[in-house]
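Ubiquitin-conjugating enzyme E2 G1: structure, please.
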Amino acid sequence: MTGQSSLLLRKQLAELNKNPVEGFSAGLVDDDDIYQWEVVVIGPQDTLFEGGFFKATLTFPRNYPLRPPKMKFITEIWHPNVAKNGDVCISILHEPGEDKYGYEKPEERWLPIHTVETIMISVISMLADPNGDSPANVDAAKEWREDPKGVFKKKPSTQLELHRGFDNWLHLSRPDDHGAQLCQHQLVTQTRKTRRKKVSKPIYLY
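Here you go.
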């Protein structure tokens, strides 16, 4: 099973490198370990996360895709479905089968057909539309219900600080780091779209 999971993950990585998906980049933490991925999520447009870059890790089990990976944000983020230690709590990453608490249907949980792409699309959707019914961060969920537009303004930073941190990441990345190149391209594209909309929004990094 280890050989099959390794081949499947390498195939997915090659596909993402060949056909990047808007909204995130993905690569390996260590080129010698296909089971440890690093992803960078670009804050969805028209949300309170717009303009932010959020680093996370995906750790895959040796029996993937029978079991889901675990996702953990490295960049601090204040969100109802992200635990205070960064662990992501989302249906698609929950073990397959029945939910003993009755909150989720089996088809909403992990299925072997899911890929890194479908996982990341679900996470991006989660950032735009939090689920406050079964939160991983109860305090964030409470603030979200009371003030949905203000909950993520808890720890503001300037746009300059945000992009300085991102520039440092680009500078430290390897020349062949596809994730850094992709993020740079998407940053330029997103900035141009924002300028065309002529909307000025504060940027927050968590």
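Notes: The first helix runs from residue 2 to 18.
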